[in-house]
From TrEMBL:
The keyword Repeat does not apply. Keywords: Exonuclease, Hydrolase, Nuclease. The gene is recJ. It holds the Pfam family RecJ_OB. Signal peptide: none annotated. The keyword ATP-binding does not apply. This is Single-stranded-DNA-specific exonuclease RecJ.
Length: 574
């Protein structure tokens, strides 16, 4: 699908520092950056005391440590959950906690969150205090089960709460009612990090470190893990999150990161000295996530906890293998999904507004990625289902701008009581379960609801461009400047540019990647470019000599040499 190109308007950037280049000032201003947000230093972080529940949680954990209680971290099976778990495990060990362990629910056996079933597992481990990370805010029954076992429960989460909060001993979540913490987009690992800093301060007031003969830990050593989890969870990179991510990236570039992250960068063939946020998002994060998608996320956690480079490399290689398996599954499922849509001979007018897909042999751990890929191709909200056993199918949903997926599922549930067994999620992503025989009924009800809720013009995707670069700006120095001006990411998007070019050369590399040599309209600059996963019905085509290209400036590194390359987001024959 060719997306509509929308150029960002010129905005007032006079409030930004004068030392910034004119282009960079405009890029920052268009993304809403304020003056103080151009200097990403740790002293600029939001104060912990503004996070509701943080002092109470710190006191409870400190009390548990003094009483030598058994503390169990209950995480989630994605990268945010793994990094959150690792941050708490490492910080508690650094602060002298002796009886501390973690538990990650298996996606296929227990599902998400602090369920009564996972509490029973925690009880079998003689846990006396549970600390949830990246989950728990909706675990009403799970917390009740834990209290029945006599456990204390501290919830740390960042997901949106429901109408009822669990009866935990303390809740730390910036999105809970009455919390003044300004960064509502903080990831679960960020919340966990804030809790650990508050705990460190609480223990300081109790002379804990002197009493136990240990040095007060530098929790800044954990910021590489915090950065990884924040980027991998695709939360909005507001000013606070950008500070956390930049601090973590600096540790990696300086060679001071965890050996597990170094090993993951190695298998992904990324240079730690030149890492940027997108390397966490597209190289390290997926390999970490692969453990939770196909196997046990404990492998991911152990990689982050590891202190020995040899063992870290072994685990990173195993994660890399799982990620390759995930890719192969994903490619096969995507081909099957596209074939099922093409088999219906649907033109764009007949295509459902809300696409629902189901195949019995699809893998539960990959349907979220599949839904995302189909959404990107057709720019429509997509739900992909897989068999979950016990007469149920599980779906993973991905939405587009203008449609709140969880609210939509609530609408379908209200209109068709009993059709959906359970559901939950947010604006852009959600999960649900149906009875196996209800798919066709649900697909129709879902499509009808989408047609009611979504404006037709939102079915056309948009690419937001920062305009056209002059030939003088199309150089390696500018690419380096933009690379170093991040971190870029969700809601602080990496700059996209567009322009008209003459195609000098075009050839296919790999199976679906188009390698190009482009020339500016004035004929003064020749540029290397690459477009990934092109439409093979259109490209390559030697009769196409001119194109409108939407691209990012990229620094290509090969055998120690650096060159400018355009990363093509969209190419449209002219």
């Amino acid at each position: 699908m060719i997306h509509k190109i929308v150029r960002r308007p010129t905005v007032d950037d006079s409030h930004l520092p004068a030392h910034l280049s004119p282009l960079l000032k405009q890029l920052y201003a268009r993304r809403g950056a304020l003056t103080h947000e151009c200097e990403l230093v740790l002293k600029g972080l939001l104060r912990p005391e503004t996070m509701k529940g943080l002092p109470e949680a710190a006191v409870l954990i400190a009390d548990a440590m003094q009483a030598n209680k058994s503390i169990l971290i209950v995480g989630d099976f994605d990268a945010d959950g793994a990094t959150s778990t690792s941050v708490c495990m490492l910080a508690l060990r650094m602060m002298g906690a002796v009886k501390v362990d973690y538990l990650i629910p298996n996606r296929f056996d227990y599902g998400y969150g602090l369920s009564p079933e996972i509490v029973a597992v925690a009880a079998s481990k003689q846990a006396e205090m549970l600390i949830t990370v990246d989950n728990g805010i909706s675990s009403i029954d799970g917390v009740a089960a834990a209290k029945a076992f006599g456990m204390q429960v501290v919830i740390t989460d960042h997901h949106l709460p429901g109408h009822e909060l669990p009866a935990a001993d303390a809740i730390v979540n910036p999105n809970q009612p009455g919390c003044p913490f300004a960064s509502k987009s903080i990831a679960g690992v960020g919340v966990a990090f804030y809790l650990m800093t508050a705990l460190r301060a609480e223990l300081r007031t109790r002379n804990w470190y002197q009493t136990h003969g240990i040095a007060e830990p530098n929790l800044g050593t954990l910021l590489d893990i915090v950065a990884l989890g924040t980027v991998a969870d695709v939360v909005s990179l507001d000013a606070n999150n950008r500070i956390l991510v930049e601090a973590g990236l600096q540790r990696v570039r300086a060679g001071r990161c965890r050996v597990g992250i170094t090993a993951l960068l190695e298998v992904a063939k990324r240079n730690p000295a030149r890492i940027v946020a997108s390397d966490f998002g597209f190289a390290v994060g997926p390999r970490l996530n692969a453990a939770g998608r196909l196997d046990e996320m404990a492998l991911g956690v152990e990689t982050l906890l590891c202190e020995d480079m040899m063992y870290a490399r072994r685990m990173a290689a195993e994660l890399d293998g799982l990620n390759q398996e995930r890719r192969e599954l994903e490619v096969g499922m995507q081909q099957e999904a596209l074939k099922s849509l093409e088999h219906l001979k649907l033109n764009e007018a007949e295509l459902p507004w809300g696409i629902a897909l189901f195949q019995e042999d699809w893998h539960q751990g990959v349907i979220g990625i599949l839904a995302s890929r189909i959404k990107d191709k057709y720019h429509r909200p997509v739900i992909a289902f897989a068999d979950a056993g016990n007469g149920e199918i599980k779906g993973s949903a991905r939405s587009i701008k203008g449609l709140h997926m969880r609210d939509l599922l609530e609408l379908v549930n209200t209109r068709h009581p009993g059709l959906i067994i359970k559901f939950g999620g947010h604006a852009m992503a959600a999960g649900l379960s149906l009875k196996a025989g209800s798919f066709a009924t649900f697909a129709k009800a879902y499509d009808n609801a989408v047609r009611e809720q979504l404006k037709p013009e939102l079915l056309t995707g948009e690419l937001w461009s920062d305009g056209e670069l002059t030939p003088a700006e199309l150089n390696l120095e500018m690419a380096q400047l933009l690379r170093n001006a991040g971190p870029w990411g969700q809601a602080f998007e990496e700059p996209l540019f567009d322009g008209y070019f003459t195609i000098v050369q075009q050839r296919l590399v790999g199976e679906r990647h188009l390698k190009l040599v482009l020339e500016t309209q004035c004929g003064t600059v020749m540029l290397d470019a690459i477009a990934f996963n092109v439409d093979l019905h259109t490209w390559p085509d030697a009769t196409i000599n001119h194109a409108r290209v939407v691209y990012k400036l990229d620094v290509n590194e090969y055998r120690g040499n650096f060159s400018l390359q355009l990363m093509v987001e969209q190419i449209e024959a002219m």
